[in-house]
Every structure is written in C-alpha cells, then in structure tokens.
Amino acid sequence: MAKPKKHKKSGKKVTRYTYDDIKEPRTPETGHTSLLPAEEQVVTLPMDNGWSKAIKVGKLPEGEERTVIVDMDPAADPVLFWAGKRNRREVPVLPLQRNEIVSESRIAQIIERARRAAEEKSGAARQGHLFADLEKTLRESDRSKRVEFYTHEEGWKNKLICGDSLQVMESLLHYENQRGRVQMIYLDPPYGIDYNSNFQKLIGTGRNDDDDSDRADDVLTIKAFRDTWSLGVHSYLSYLRERLYLCRDLLSESGGIFLQISEANLHLCRSMMDEVFGYSNFAAQILFRKSGGLTAATLNRVGDYLVWYFKDAEQGRSAYRQLFRRKVPGDEGATQYRYVLLTDGTIRELSDEELARCAENELVAHDNVTSQGNPVYEFRFRGRLFKGPFKPPPERLQALAEMGRLCVVGNTLRYVRRLTDFPWFEVNQLWEDTGVSGFGRPKVYAVQTSDLVVERCISMTTRPGELVLDPTIGSGTTALAAERLGRRWIGIDSSRVAINTARWELLRTLFPHYRLRNGRPTGDFEYEASPRIRMSGLIDGKEPERVELFDRPVPDQSAIRVCGPFEVMSLGRYSVEDWKGYVVGEPAITYGEPAKLENYIEVICRLYRKDAAIQGATGLVHAVAETEKDRIAISVGPLLGRVTGKQINDAVQDALASGILEVHVLGWAFEANVGEVKSQLEKRGRVKVELIMIRPDTLAEGLKATQPEMLFSPLALPDIEVAAVKDGKEKHLRVTLKGVALFDRKRRTTEYKAADSGYVSAWYLDEDYDGDCFVDCQMFFDFKKTPNIKAALKAEVDPEEFTLKLDSQPFSVRGYKRIAVKVVDVYGNESTIVRDI
Ligand SMILES: C[S@@+](CC[C@H](N)C(=O)[O-])C[C@H]1O[C@@H](n2cnc3c(N)ncnc32)[C@H](O)[C@@H]1O
Fold first, then answer.
1. Atom 18 in ligand 1: which residue has the minimum CA distance?
2. What are the backbone dihedrals phi and psi of residue 602, each rounded to the nearest 5 degrees, phi first?
3. How far is the CA of 292 from the centre of ligand 1 (A)?
C-alpha cells in the first residue's frame, strides 16, 4: 500500500490502496502494439458445454432461402432456442494497449493544495504531487524495457477499458493472463428491451432523453447496438451468451457472476445461464428495489433482478460471506420482537404506536424452551409448576430464569429472546433497501445502478485485494464500489461517455480508509463485529459468538482515502485482419448470422474519394487517389482501435516507396501523439500528411450515399496556450485551455468552441509526456457535488477548486521537455495535443 502522507497539524492522512504485491504482465503502451505475434489474431469462441451437437431447425420467413442453424441438442437438457444460436464464433484477438495512467487523483491534489495554502498562509502554493512515487517510477523506468511487452511483470493496476466487451474479455484471457483470476463479475448489460434506454449521449446529465437526433453516435456504441439488436431478442441472446461464456473462462473456480436484468428477459437469461454455467451452479435470484419504479398496466415494477451463478457451486459456497442487515423493530427480520417483559414474568404485546416508541433493548420475542426427546421434568417458575422435555437440564434452566430469559405465555414456559441479543438479520434474496443511491452519489448516468447493490455483491463473494470485473461498467458503479471496498477491478464499456464518466467519478471521490490487518488490502480489513447471544450458548454457559460484519470494515478515523492509480486502455493493433467481419452492411438482409461488410477498407476509401484505387492487402497504403494535379495515398485506421503514430509512419514510408508525397490517414480515433508524428514527418520535408476523422455517423447511416465532405473532417486538436510564470525565484510554466474542436452533428461541421462555452467536460495535463503513455498529472472538471472535506482537512478549500478551471497549476519543465493536453468534450470525444517546451 502507498505510504500515507502525514499531516499532523492539518487534519487527516491521505491514503490510497495499491496492489504492487500482485503481479501482472506488462501491457503494450500506445504505438507499440505491432510488436506482437501476427498469427494469434483469431480465436474460436467455444460456446459449448460438451454435450451439444449441430442440428438444423426452422425456416426463415417466406422469400428467404437459408435455414436457421441451431447448434444444440435439446435432448440433453431443456435449453432455449433462438435464431442464430451457434456453438462457435470467430473473434479477432486484439491486444490491449495502455493509453493513459492515472497516477493522481483530483481530490487528492485539491486537498494537498488547500493544506499547503493553510500552512504557508499564501494562496500561491504550487501543485502538489501527493503520490509522486508512482509517477516517478513510470518516468524513470528503463524505456528499452518498456517495449518488451508481456515478457515481464509489474505491480497490478486497475483498468478502465474502452472497447466491446467481447474483444476485451477475449484479450484479457489471451494476452493479459486473466483466465481463472476474476473472483466476481457484475454484468449489467442492456436489458434487451429498448435500445435508447441504454445509451447516454452527454457526460454527466444522468438522462437519455436527449432529442432524437442526439442519440449515441460513437461507432462502438452503434456497433454494440447492431450486434445486440439486428434480430431483436434473437441477437440479444446471442450477444449475451457469447459474453457469458467468456465470463465463465475468466472466473476463478470459487468465483461467481451476477447478471442484472429486468423481468422482461429474466426468464430467458436464467435459462441461458443454466446452460452456460450449469443448473447446479445456480446460487440465488435476488429482487432489488430501484430508486424509480415503472408504471405498468397491471402491477407496477419496483425493482430489477440479479441472477447469481457460481463457476463451481461447492467452491463458491465455501468462499461465500454471509452479510447482515440491522433489525428495525416491526420490520423484516424483527417482526416477532413486539413484546415487553413484565415484572410478573409474563409478556405484553405492544401496539404499533408503542412499538415505535419502545427502546430496542426492551423488545423481546419468545421461543420454545422444550424439545421432544429430552427428559421430561417439572420446573417451578414464579410460583407456577411447568412440566416438559426442557432443552436444558434443571440447573441450567434455573440459570436461564435468573438471567431473565424465561417468561410465561398462556400456560407455557417460554424462552425470552431479546432484539439486542443479535440486532442483525441475514441478508436474503429480497433487497428492498436498495432504492436509494448509496453514499449520496448524484445520478450521472441514465441507467446507473445503486452503489449498495454492487457493494453487497462484492462483499458477499470476494475478499479485499481480489479481482472484480464489470464488462459493461457504465458510469463506473462497480469500479467505485470495488475501489471503496479495496478490491482490484477491471471495467469495460464500449461508450466513450461511459468511460469518461467513470474516470471522472473515480477521480473526484473520497473513500474511507479501512483498517488493514497486515498493512495491505490483500491481507483483509478489520471488520465491525457483533456478539450473538443464543439460547444454546446460554445453556452451555459459553461466551457469545462473535459475528463479523463483512460489509462493515472499520474506518480509520485519522485518514481519508482517494482512488488508487489506474490505467485507461483500449484495444490496440492495426491490421487489415482486425476488420474482417466487423463492419456491418444492412442487418436486415442477413438472418441468423452477424452481418458483415464485404470490404471495410474499400467502402471507407470510396466514400472518401470516389476515384480511390484500392491496393492489395499488404502495406499501409490502402488506396491511391490520382488526379491530374495530385496523387494521394490513403491509409485507413481500424474500427476497433486508434490510429497510431506507427501506422502514420509506416503509411508514409510505404507511400514514399511508391513515390507518393501526400498521405491521408483516416481514422475513427487517434492516439495522443499523432499531431507530433505528423509534424515531425512533415519537418523532414517532402511529404504532406493529413489526419482525417471519420465521422461517427458514417456507419450509423448504414453507409448510405451521404456527401463525403460530411463524413470526414480534419482531425482538430485542442487550442492551448503555454506561458512562463514566475513562482518565487523559480520559473514555471502554466497551460491555459483556450478552446476545443467540436463536431456539430446538425450542421456537420467541425468548429472551435471557447473552452468556457460549456462543451468541455474535463481536461488533463501530462507535464512530462514521454511520447507513449499519457500520465495524468493535473486534471480539471466540475464536481457534480461538492465534497464536504473541511472538517477532515482542517483547511478551507477554495470553492473554485471544484469547478472546471481553465488555467493549470504552475509546473516546472522536466526530462522530456514536452507536455500533452487531453480534452474530453461533453460527448466523450477525446483529443490530445502534444507540445515541445
Ligand atoms: C445498463 S448500462 C450499465 C450501467 C452501470 N451498471 C452503471 O451503474 O452505470 C449498460 C452499459 O453497457 C454498455 N455496453 C453495451 N454494449 C456493450 C458492449 N458490447 N461492450 C461493452 N459495453 C457495452 C453501454 O455503453 C452501457 O454503458
């Protein structure tokens, strides 16, 4: 764990949890992905539990010739059928690449500055690097070693990964060595009922009711939609099943998965999970209350379901930790405690009003003190004689009487149970207390799960330091819950809005610092515990049992905690292979199979320049457009990854080899350093490089004849100003964000908007950019809710700190003499500019 900084005079320590004791293979950084072996590109997803065989069932609607294939044998077990159900699917395996390391936390920096300001009594305190250790290691690590990916190990860092869960999970298995390493998966996919309900277009609104033209427009989201919906519920089930098989492979033998789903498709999902995980590995089905209900024609909907399966029930059950909820008089778990004990040894039932007023330690219930098979004897209590097969022997029954544990109900002697004997009841499969968003987190995502739901799943099934995966992380609820509870986490989402919302949530949240048993989260926490007094214990004269409350780790009041370091990743690798079968034509013309685009490169190149002559499959010049005046080489970036500096470089070399001096590189997304690569190539003379963004709606419109100039726009970088400032004797730099390039979807133009025009969601500064991986040194965004940290800090925080500032803190020039600024607009688009200083 990172060493906490002590601030004796100025409030609490600031800590964070790290997991250097757990090793993982080193993942490639931006631009280095081509070093990987070429032959491991496609794997066959085995979606088969061993007993199925291929059969053909059903016909397509009239007019269609092909039969629908279902590779399942219904004779073995009852299973679901749907159009297009297959036992195998080819998936390209793309390595992940690390684009960014978040080594600091915004809230930690604010705290640090407030403290220094208080200590120095001057408002000009410099940017604090509370956790400079990790950044230092990153900067100083041997760069030659840093390109030897997957050959050596490094300390674990949590991961936020932008990409389709199918490819990302395959990559986690294939490259990242995570097979069998995940202890719990929380999967909250689209529910398979309404496309629009799942995708939020703007960061931070918490709504998905933007007007029609404002629907999600990023290409991965659109692709995710098409995969999920082209055949309605048939595609949905195929989509989910493929991912469930990957989840099973990632789970450890004692691990488990929770699928969040609404009642509309609950029955289908449960059958499918029986098939994938095995009926005998079913753990429980939980109904949890949501914050907002749905009005229905019959019974209104008040909750959703969690379907919970183990990888292996026996091992899963032995790793399970029972949780408890506090008993509330009159409510679930405490309905029998509605009596008080009277001085004559009888009990009296309370009215509802009396119950509400009664002190908890007076409330009692009564229980059997006899049990068949015990020796029958007579016992005198309060002057009355009782006879029965009493559980305790006479002298212990007398002891119970002296302890005030016996009462008379009618003509029977009964045992007195007190609510305070154990003021907790076991968490069961009905969670009606989850209707509020736990810990007061504001709603930032339209389909945000309550923190409490995910935290409960984590606490029941994992221990601190174990790994939690969410393949559809949305606003980051699972990452936040795992971070709060000291579990390692991986979050995946295909939407940029989701990834940026999750990052933002992590950077601005304060967590309690829980007391660790041996200094590291992997060694578990100290938990609150409650004595449990039982009749059997009193009879045997034993001390009450001590029950640990595993969802109540003990906070260390002298510390507050911020988010640990994490990496932001995406799928890497450019190669023609990666695109095969991954762009869709009109989905309606295919039935029962994923739609395919026959030639992605050809379509994109032709849309860009009608006259483009497509080149062979080798090399990175994919097409050449030739007029009398010019000759242009066109290179197209991958659908699932970003255009790298290396692709640009290679395309230019290929073009020069053919005597072409102008290269246009088209891409959906670009890596941070591409502007720099372009200017370096151009500086050498001769060649001109254009970087062209393919507009997200190119595919959304089904590749219909749209004006090419509307589909492409030059890659626009953020507008920044770097100025020297004097800070005492030292000279420092300050970056000011002036503007952001924004694509106007209605007018289909790229425009510069002023940085304070409301279009910037967040911006990040790497003070010493090494050209590979963006390290977040400073970060700026609005806090949705101002955290109350004054008491913890013993220092005032300037309220301005919680708003989106456009000037950075002053910083000194360091080793690489280069900075990078990444801007995220409100639509989740990222653009990065690199500047030598
Ligand atoms: C119901 S939301 C999850 C919300 C999340 N539980 C939360 O609390 O914020 C579903 C998420 O799945 C994502 N998604 C849909 N299809 C996906 C895919 N194929 N791969 C990765 N993410 C996907 C959507 O972008 C959306 O954020």
1. 164
2. -60, -45
3. 19
How far is the centre of ligand 1, averaged over its atoms, from the C-alpha of 268 (Å)? 19
pLDDT by residue (tens digit) across 170-221?
Answer: 889 988 889 999 999 999 998 877 655 555 667 776 666 554 444 445 545 5
8 Å CB contact between 570 and 162: yes
Write down the pLDDT at residue 130. Answer: 64
Tokens at 794, concatenated: 């013993």
Kindly give the distance from the C-alpha atom of residue 771 to the centroid of ligand 1, in angstroms, as a whole number: 31
- Supply the pTM of this predicted model: 0.83
Please list, in sequence order, all residues whose beta carbon lies within 8 angstroms of the beta carbon of residue 731, skipping any fewer than 6 positions away.
Answer: 724, 725, 812
* Ligand 1: lining residues by beta carbon, under 6 Å: 164-165, 188-190, 198-199, 221, 224, 445, 447-449, 472, 474-475, 477, 492-495, 498
Among 228-242, 551-565, 744-758, 795-809, name the one with the lowest average pLDDT: 744-758
Beta bridge partners of 404: none
Atom of ligand 1 lying closest to residue 243 CA: 19
Q: What 8-state DSSP symbol labels residue 212? A: G
Rounded CA separation 831/837 (Å): 19
Whether 306 contacts 457, CB under 8 Å: yes
Strands (E), 369-521: 377-381, 384-388, 406-409, 412-418, 424-426, 430-431, 467-470, 488-493, 510-514
What is the number of the ligand 1 atom nearest to the C-alpha of 470? 6
Of 46-60, 120-134, 317-331, 762-776, the poorest mean pLDDT is in 46-60
Q: What are phi and psi of 382, to 5 degrees?
A: 50, 40
Distances (CA, A) of 471 to 203, 260, 265, 518, 788: 19, 12, 19, 31, 32
